[in-house]
Design a protein that fits this description.
5-stranded antiparallel sheet, 2 helices, about 5% helix
C-alpha cells in the first residue's frame, strides 16, 4: 500500500513537471521561429510577390500608400541569379521591372500590377541592377504645370531617381489610387549638386507639400538629406534646409512624419566605418531648422533604410532591416515623440542572407501595422521575394532605453 502511494505521488509529480515544460515551451515561442512562422497571434507573415527563379526587392525605393484597407506598394523585379550570399542576386544582364502590389483586404492577399503596360513608371538609369525594358519607348520628361491636388481622395505620388549619387529625378502622381499615373515630371535640383529622390513627403494642404530628399554631397557622392517644399501643386520647388551636417559617409533615405502643427520628425539611414545606423532629427519650425537626437538604432549591419509612421494613438513606429547576423526585420516604438525608444521588437529573424529589408509600413484601420520588405529564407529558397508582416503594436510592451542612452 505504501509503495502504491509513493508510485501515485511520483506519477503526479511527473505530470506536473510535464505540463510545466509544455507550457513553458509555448511561452518561449513568443518570437519568430527559424522558419519565420510566428507563434504569436499578433504576428503574421504573408508573401506579396514570389516567383521561382525571380528576384523581388527594394520597396523603400518606390513607396507605399493606403486608403482604408486598400494598400498599394511598389517594388523592383528581375531574374534571379546567384552572385554570392552578400550580393543583390538579380541578373544584371536581364530586364528589371518596376511593379506594384495591391491589397484590398489590409495586406492579407495581393495582386501584382505592371504600369509599364501603359508606358509609365518605366525603369531607367544607372540606379537599375538589371537592364532597361527592351522595345519600350520611354516618355519624355517634362516640367509639371502645377495644380496637383495633394488632398485628393485617390491621391498617390511617387518620386524616382536614375542614379543614387546625382540623379536626376522625376515624379508621377495619380488620382485613382495608382491605377493610372501622370508623368514623368522633372524634379529640379533646387541649387544642389543633384537630387536622388525617393518617396517621402508630408502633405500640408491641397497645393502645398513637404518633400524629404537626398542630394549629392559637395564631392558629388551620395548623399545628404534635405527638406524641400512646393506651394503651387508641383510647378515649382523650394529648397528649405539641410537635415544635419554633411556626413563623412552617406546620410540618405529619410522617412518623416508630422508630430504637431510646427513639429516634424525624420529618421535617416547613415553609414559608418564598420556598420550603419539610423539617425533622428527634429524640426520645430516646419522644416526650416533641424536638431539631432538620440539614434533610434545604433547598428543596422551594412545598412538599411527606416520606415517611420505615426500610429493612431500618437506613438511613433519605426521599422527596419538588420543586415548582420541574425538577419532580421525589426521595429521600435516611442511614446515620447522620439526622445526615447522601446526595445527592439524582432518581427522575424530567419533571414538567410544580408540581402533583405528596405521596408515600408502603414497602419490599418483596425490598428495593425503592415510592414512590407524584401526577404530570403531557407524554407522558401534562394530567391528574394516581397513579404508583408502584419502585426499589432499594442501586443508589445514598450520599455524605455533612455537610461542606457545616458550611460
Amino acid at each position: 500500500m505504501q509503495r502504491l502511494k509513493r508510485t501515485s505521488i511520483e506519477i503526479l509529480i511527473c505530470l506536473i513537471v510535464f505540463m510545466f515544460l509544455v507550457c513553458n515551451s509555448s511561452w518561449g515561442l513568443e518570437s519568430v521561429n527559424l522558419q519565420g512562422e510566428s507563434s504569436v497571434p499578433s504576428i503574421k507573415h504573408v508573401k506579396v510577390y514570389f516567383e521561382k527563379n525571380r528576384f523581388g526587392g527594394w520597396p523603400a525605393n518606390h513607396g507605399i500608400w493606403i486608403w482604408g484597407n486598400e494598400i498599394l506598394v511598389g517594388f523592383s523585379a528581375g531574374d534571379y541569379k546567384d552572385l554570392g550570399q552578400d550580393r543583390h542576386n538579380i541578373d544584371r544582364e536581364k530586364p528589371e521591372s518596376h511593379l506594384f502590389a495591391r491589397s484590398i483586404d489590409g495586406g492579407e492577399t495581393w495582386q501584382i500590377e505592371d504600369s509599364s503596360k501603359d508606358g509609365v513608371l518605366l525603369p531607367e538609369g544607372k540606379m537599375l541592377h538589371g537592364t532597361e525594358l527592351p522595345g519600350v519607348v520611354k516618355p519624355v520628361w517634362r516640367d509639371c504645370p502645377g495644380g496637383i491636388d495633394f488632398k485628393h481622395s485617390g491621391f498617390a505620388m511617387t518620386l524616382r531617381m536614375t542614379d543614387s549619387d546625382k540623379g536626376p529625378s522625376r515624379f508621377y502622381y495619380s488620382y485613382d489610387r495608382g491605377k493610372h499615373w501622370e508623368g514623368p515630371f522633372r524634379l529640379p535640383d533646387m541649387g544642389t549638386s543633384g537630387v536622388a529622390a525617393r518617396t517621402d513627403m508630408i502633405v500640408v494642404n491641397s497645393h502645398e507639400c513637404l518633400f524629404f530628399l537626398t542630394a549629392a554631397k559637395a564631392d558629388g557622392q551620395e548623399g545628404r538629406p534635405f527638406c524641400a517644399r512646393t506651394v503651387d501643386g508641383g510647378k515649382t520647388f523650394e529648397f528649405l534646409s539641410w537635415i544635419g551636417q554633411e556626413p563623412e559617409g552617406y546620410a540618405i533615405m529619410p522617412s518623416s512624419v508630422r508630430l504637431s502643427k510646427n513639429e516634424l520628425f525624420s529618421v535617416i539611414r547613415c553609414s559608418g566605418k564598420d556598420h550603419s545606423r539610423l539617425a533622428a532629427y527634429r524640426s520645430k519650425d516646419n522644416g526650416l531648422h533641424w536638431d539631432a537626437l538620440q539614434d533610434p538604432v545604433a547598428d543596422t549591419g551594412e545598412g538599411n533604410p527606416p520606415s517611420l509612421i505615426k500610429l493612431n494613438d500618437g506613438r511613433l513606429c519605426l521599422t527596419y532591416g538588420v543586415r548582420s547576423h541574425p538577419y532580421r526585420m525589426c521595429a521600435k516604438l516611442s511614446s515620447e515623440h522620439g526622445d526615447t525608444w522601446g526595445e527592439e521588437i524582432v518581427l522575424r529573424d530567419d533571414g538567410s542572407s544580408r540581402d533583405i529589408g528596405y521596408p515600408r509600413s502603414v497602419q490599418r484601420p483596425d490598428g495593425k501595422v503592415v510592414t512590407i520588405y524584401y526577404f530570403s529564407d531557407a524554407k522558401t529558397g534562394a530567391e528574394r521575394y516581397i513579404a508583408a508582416t502584419i502585426w499589432d503594436p499594442n501586443s508589445f510592451k514598450e520599455i524605455s532605453t533612455q537610461e542606457d542612452s545616458n550611460e
